[in-house]
TrEMBL record:
Protein name in the entry: Queuine tRNA-ribosyltransferase
Pathway annotation: tRNA modification; tRNA-queuosine biosynthesis
Positions of Zn(2+) binding: 309, 311, 314, 340
Residue sites binding substrate per the record: 89-93, 143, 194, 221
Cofactors (names): Zn(2+)
Subunit relationships: Homodimer. Within each dimer, one monomer is responsible for RNA recognition and catalysis, while the other monomer binds to the replacement base PreQ1.
Organism lineage: Bacteria, Bacillati, Bacillota, Clostridia, Eubacteriales
GO cellular component: cytosol
Annotated region (RNA binding), positions in chain: 252-258, 276-280
Keywords annotated in UniProt: Glycosyltransferase, Metal-binding, Queuosine biosynthesis, Transferase, tRNA processing, Zinc
Cofactor binding mode and count: Binds 1 zinc ion per subunit.
Source species: Clostridium luticellarii
InterPro entries: ArchSynthase1/Queuine_TRR, TGT, TGT-like_sf, tRNA_ribo_trans-like
Catalytic activity, reaction form: 7-aminomethyl-7-carbaguanine + guanosine(34) in tRNA = 7-aminomethyl-7-carbaguanosine(34) in tRNA + guanine
Length: 375
């Protein structure tokens, strides 16, 4: 259940109550694709750095270790030792990212595994069954994510099929939640708005899926080829046509700047691999902008990554030491930088929530963007 606590223009401050706890929004979901954060960060660490909700990947977990294995071990929460909310994506993005080894049909999508080339089929029902076995808090509907730009006629047909798939997802999720042996019989379902960069297709799709009374709604198919300006335009066009009493999730986005812009336009949920991926490659976010710790100027720098940061890395280690770890190819380098970057993102969301609560979001946004731009 989503409770809107405050609204200023389109900016939303809310609480999302789930079977696994309450999520304060706006929120950034920390991405653990294979039930783990890349960079040797544990679920114990996630609690220490303020993670409210974790995201895992349906497609990848269905291959390794297998959703039936996770079900046998009590579900994803028990498997990875995480008692807070988990959102699982549907496998739909793999329809996009594995475009050279897939065939899309009305019944679903035929893949070849990226691991061993074996044949795989996933449709709406299969995605829901896998996510039910994982027993995540929130399951995402199975959809097709098309690259931007794509021909209008292709996008129109794709969106219609995505709508038909969503209806099948809802029927199957209701069935699975009614079974006595289902681990999480309160599993929630989010639908996904698609439509490429075509405003009218996006708006019409938003109207149709809004009538299905789902637990939440996502805006998908962005950050896949379009400009930031196009992405912001689509968000502005679509959100008024999505239910305002449900959480709104912008999938796969993005940079700190993207997040501030999208919050201003009404988005509640975010996820992105950027903080963990950048951290593993020595790029870290600071209050003054992003820096690369491999730069020679940090060789003798005894200061923390960010003097203003209270993460475990900044409390205990210097830029010079972490640079040395990267040069020596020590795994600890990645771990310390991923911890810092995820803390930065989680703390950014906390500051955003405080700014909304205190009626100073617009000045906060201006200040942050100026700091990062000047850097």
């Amino acid at each position: 259940m989503y409770k809107l606590l405050k609204k200023c223009g389109r900016i939303r401050r809310g609480e999302f109550t789930t079977p696994h706890g309450v999520v304060q929004t706006p929120v950034f979901m920390n991405v653990g694709t294979l039930a783990a954060i890349k960079g040797a960060v544990s679920t114990v660490d996630l609690k220490e750095i303020g993670c409210q909700i974790e995201l895992s990947n349906t497609y990848h977990l269905s291959l390794r270790p297998g959703d039936e294995v996770i079900r046998e071990l009590g579900g994803l929460h028990k498997f990875m030792n995480w008692d807070r909310p988990i959102l699982t994506d549907s496998g739909g993005f793999q329809v996009f990212s594995l475009s050279d080894i897939r065939r899309i049909k009305e019944e679903g999508v035929y893949f070849n595994s990226h691991i061993d080339g074996s044949k795989i089929f996933m449709g709406p029902e299969e995605s829901m069954r896998i996510q039910s076995n994982l027993a995540s808090t929130v399951a995402m509907a199975f959809d097709e994510c098309v690259k931007n730009p794509s021909p209008r006629d292709y996008v129109e047909n794709s969106v219609k099929r995505t709508t038909r798939w969503l209806k099948r997802c809802k029927v199957e999720m209701d069935r699975l939640n009614s079974l006595p042996d289902t681990i999480n019989r309160e599993q929630m379902l989010f639908g996904i708005n698609q439509g490429g960069v075509y405003d009218d297709i996006r708006i019409e799709h938003a109207k149709i899926i809004s009538e299905m009374d789902l637990d939440g709604y996502a805006i998908g198919g962005l950050a896949v080829g379009e400009t930031h300006e196009e992405m912001y335009r689509i968000i502005e066009k679509v959100i008024p046509y999505l239910p305002q009493n449900k959480p709104i999730y912008l999938m796969g986005v993005g940079t700190p700047e993207n997040i501030l812009e999208a919050v201003e336009r009404g988005v509640d949920f975010f996820d992105c691999v950027l903080p963990a991926r950048n951290g593993r490659h020595s790029h870290v976010f600071t209050s003054e902008g992003e820096i690369n710790l491999l730069n020679a100027k940090y060789k003798l720098d005894g200061s923390p990554i960010d003097e203003k940061c209270s993460c475990p890395t900044c409390k205990n280690y210097s830029r010079a030491y972490i640079r040395h770890l990267f040069k020596a190819k020590e795994m600890l380098a990645m771990r310390l930088c991923v911890l810092h970057n995820l803390y930065f993102y989680n703390n950014l969301m906390k500051e955003i929530r405080n700014a909304i609560d205190g009626d100073y979001f617009h000045s906060y946004k201006r200040e942050k963007l100026n700091q990062w731009e000047n850097k």
